[in-house]
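Re: that chain you flagged

S.,

Sorry for the slow reply, it's been a week of failed gels. I finally had a moment to sit down with the sequence you sent. For the record, here it is as I used it:
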Amino acid sequence: MPELRKDPVVGRWVIISTERGRRPSDFPVEPVRPRGGNCVFCPGNEAKTPPEILANRPPDSAPNAPGWSLRVVPNKFPALRIEGELEPSGEGLYDRMNGVGAHEVVIETPHHSASLASLSADTVAEVLLAYRERMVDLKKDPRFEYILVFKNHGGPAGASLEHPHSQLIATPIIPIMVTEELTGSAQYYEMKERCVWCDILRQERRSRRRIIAEANGFVALSPFAPRFPFETWILPTRHRSAFEETGIDELRGLAELLGDFLRRMDRVLNSPPFNFMLHTAPLRDGPLEHFHWHLEIIPKLTNVAGYEWGSGFFINPVPPEDATAALRAGGE
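Prediction finished late last night. Pasting the structure tokens below so you have them in one place:
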């Protein structure tokens, strides 16, 4: 029988449609065909991107030239622009401000056909460290309230270029998805004086029903009320609200677990397109007892249709316990 499940953080209900139950092999995935050639992110094409903000390269390697292992550049077509002042204003009951922010691209590797799943743990750790360094730097700008790190992998997930890359956008407002988590977790903390994510971790680590993998101080788990098939969260086992507070050794541990999970996902789901989003505390809030940073990974296996858009209910044909079992079995 189908179930209604409630997310304990934001209070969102989802429909686990067991009568539509689907196995991993029931989700067709169009294979990615790397093209290379004229890719603007490949070595030798550095002049086709804006000048690099950050790069990992040998000391004798010139900026904006080949020889790098990772580059961070401004997005050539940014959603928001770093120049200017906010100048908030009103128009009757409507509010507006200038589209000021920062939009950057993290080019994760010089190898066009690679992926985070195929890169070494050290290389993935470099990517995570680049996220941290850019967040710490952008935090100095008083105009910005939040930084969202995200990755679109594959055309159906919104990637316009095949070369491995992720992005970050700094905004002068806190995104509504994060606001909902902040509000829900604050309400939970007010009632119980405990972090809701810490409670989730304690319960799931006891029962093991939805734990996919655990190592190096991090856990990959299927949430109790997932919006999408095989949705997965990765969280630090130690309470921490801000990603930028994560140490280098911890980032190495996260890189190992993230790589392990992505390889499991590729084996079980035939290398699907996916999105991931890093939810961390707002820049100006300081340490929060009620919020716990986490990475949300969502394979692009189904489409959101009219009922979801109209009702706010998501329909998921794969119970999280089934997803967990399949991803556990896909381990190395």
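What I noticed first: The longest helix spans residues 248-269.

Talk soon,
D.
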